[in-house]
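Example 3.2
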Amino acid sequence: MMNRPSEELGCARILLVDDKQELLTSLYHLVTLYGYEADQALGGEQAMQALADNVYDVVLLDLIMPGISGHDILDYAVREKLKCKIIVVSGDSSFSGVKHALHCGAFDFVKKPYEAAELIATMETALRQVKLERQASEMEEQLKESEELHRFIVNSSPDLVYMLDRNGCFTFINDRIQGMLGFSREELLGRHFSELIEEEDLEAMNNLFNERRTGGRAVRNVEIRLKSNCRDHRGGLVRPQSVWSELTAMGIYADNNERTRENFVGTYGTARDISQRKQAEEMINFQAYHDLLTHLPNRALLKDRLSLAITHARRNKRKLAAMFLDLDRFKLVNDTLGHSMGDRLLKAVANRLQSCLRKGDTLSRFGGDEFTLLLPEVRTRDDVVVIAEKILDRLSEPFVIDGHELFVGASIGISMYPEAGESGEALIQNADIAMYHVKGRGKNGYQFFSEEMNHQFSSRLNLERELRNGLIQGEFEVYYQPQVSLEDGGITGVEALVRWRHGRRGMVEPREFLPLAEETGLIMQIDEFVQQQAFHDVAAWRRAGLGDICLSVNLTATQIEQDGFVERFVSALRVAGLDARHVKLEITENTLMQDMEVIIPKLKEIRRLGARIAIDDFGTGYSSLSYLQQFPINTLKIDRSFVGDIRAEDGGASIVDAIVAMARGLKLDLVAEGVENRTQLKYLRDHGCEEVQGFIFSPAVPAADLVALLKENTFNQLLDGKPVAALSA
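Structure, written as tokens:
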């Protein structure tokens, strides 16, 4: 059933403008569905022609169009003084776009995609405004014939209308004074205009009224603050307030042809309440220079203040410092408890950081969980150290939000002017570099920038760029190290390990690029590449009858924490044709402990599918027996550093003994890595270790070499103490 417009709006002339036919048609159907007639203009050129040929009440205008844009249409409407109300319907909701549209005369702004009811309501509001303005215009012509009607329109005006005598005292003021400033007409008649003017604006107002201009030279659109008598109802107290007003003033003379001091009678003018517009302007200005979440200065404002501080420091031969703060453990809170909790934590951190500032310091949110701090007027590094330590101390205290006790620290990089740079950009960049050095050595501390860091940072950037290119260009390979049964010397499994064959540098050691890959998040791409390739290789070897091989692959917290990790992992197995029962996932203690609430449920789900879970590098982390019982693990993997402690002279290693006993008590399988000699091999075999891997059998080798080992598939000669010719090659 078609909606019908009210009788007062039924004859409206409406123009619809959009450069996309489907959107224009959709808008037309919506408007006609509500009973309105409308013309359509496909693009700015047709719209310009339609506005030139016809008179419209309302225009629904798309802003972003090729050729003649919506901004051009707005400029044309202003230039030609068109009376229509233009409603911008656009997907560009940026502050700059909205501000420009409203500044150019747009009546209102509706963001795409729009709600039909909202759009129609906005359009009908504009139509009513057009009708009211048309009626006001017609009424104005009629009221010119009658003084009584003239007084009516003055008192009904949305603007304050006033008259002053030659001494500046009110002789007339319309009824708008009550609603606008809270005074009655009787209170102000006979009183001087200065009683309504804020002291800061008084001098300007005296000059304005003393000019006594008339006609086109009259003072117009002066923005001033008028005192308000509005009452605060909470306590019944009168609280002075200010109302931003746009004022006009025109001198009145007994004889307009003789504008002399003697002929001056007084002043006539109007005042319009522009408080909402000023608030909007202040909000736009605030949002342009402040972070909307924490209300701290943003990058733009920090840049301005830093530039000014550097100018003062250079002129006065003083020092200043810039701090770059990155929160530690914030990502864990954000990913575990959600972004809403993360936002509340950021606001709490911002409040706590502000409590550490001196007068004149500037704290800025740089983005995400990064903050910058400008410290002007510092004498020595010791002054900066005091503030850095105060920040670390304050952040060490827990944050309690909705019953959650949250802990965050901060890695702080510091650059001093002029040693670490003479521009704001250089100081921030070098403080950022220093902050990464804190991250690299364990987080939660501070570090001053030095030139040596710059060189290291450049090297790091180069390596990161080459790492990304290597992933794109397929420079990474999967190597396999056999895992050998100590019962019969047969190969029971392989561990898949990544190797980087750099196009120019040759083979790059994993210890050179894996830490950077973890830091930059590229480790997830590397992990998935290794796993997919290894799944295909092992599945192929099993089909070829090369043995009942179990594949061990490494997992990082970055990969496990990703949404959809389990689904992607299972899909990769299915594509390769490998059963989950033939896969063992190796994860370090530190990774398990880092985010147990997220990681443990996912590992349990994978274990239910048949995969086995091993704790890699066991003994180097900080898990306890109570935690071990909670983890869904099948295997402990003894770290190579403990295996290396096994010596012929003492016959054993106490830590290995403890791990073996722990595995037996928890009924877990035991694998030792890094086995390099027969002494270690014999000790592990005698103490009940089931599987080992290490150079004594084979280093990690390419897939083709591993196939050769699988075909022979025995190291029992080595277990018996006899040399194996194949290993010497």
